[in-house]
Amino acid sequence: TVTTGFTIAVTDTAGQTATDSTTSVVSTGTTTTTTSGTTTSTTTSPPTTIDTAYQDILGRPADAAGSAYWQQLLASGTPLATIEQDIAFSAEAQSDIQGLYQQILGRAGSPSEVAAWQNGLAQGIPLATVALDFAQSPEAQADIQNLYQQMLGRSGSPSEVAAWQNGLAQGIPL
Q: In 14-153, which ranges are E strands?
C-alpha cells in the first residue's frame, strides 16, 4: 500500500504531541517505510496472531485476503480461539491432515481420525507436530519395518527406524 501527502501526529506517554507532514508511506505486510522530506524510516511489526495461527495450523504464512478477513473478525470482537477453531476445521486443514495420512501412512484417514486431529489443531498443536506424531506412530514404525523386511530381509535397527521417522515427518516418502 502506498499513501502520499498527509500529516502524522504522534503523542508520547507524557502527552507531548509532534506532527510531521509526510510525503509517502509504503507498507508491504509487516514492513512500513515512511519518507518525510529527506528522512526515511522503516519499521517492521511482529507477526500477528493470525499469522501465527496460519503457520501453526496450516503450516504456511497467511495470505493477504485470509489475513484481512480474520483480522477484521478479530477486530470486531471474535475471540482468537474461535478463529483458530474455524481455521483448524477448514477444508484446507482437513486436506492437510488427509495429505499427512497419505504421505506418511499410505492411506486415507477416517472421518473420526481427521476430526480428532482437527481438534488437536484447534487446541494449539502445530501441523508440524501432527506430522511428527504420524511419523512416530506404531503404524508408521510397522510400515518402516515391513519395508526393511521386504527389501533387505531384516529388521531395521532403532536408529534406522528413527531416521526414517524423522524423514517422514519432514515430508520424505517411504
A: 17-28, 31-36, 39-44
Q: Residue 121: exposed, middle, or buried by beta-carbon count in 10 A (0-12, 13-18, 19+)?
A: buried
DSSP annotation string for 80-98? HHHHHHHHHTSHHHHHHHH
**Amino acid residing at 52:** T
In the sheet where 39-44 sits, what is the strand order?
Answer: 2-11, 17-28, 31-36, 39-44
pTM for the full model? 0.64
Task: Supply the pLDDT for residue 169.
Answer: 83
Give dist(CA 54, CA 96) in Å, integer: 12
Cell numbers representing residue 80 in the block = 482468537
Largest CA distance in the chain: 79
Phi, psi angle pair for 30, to nearest 5°: -95, 5
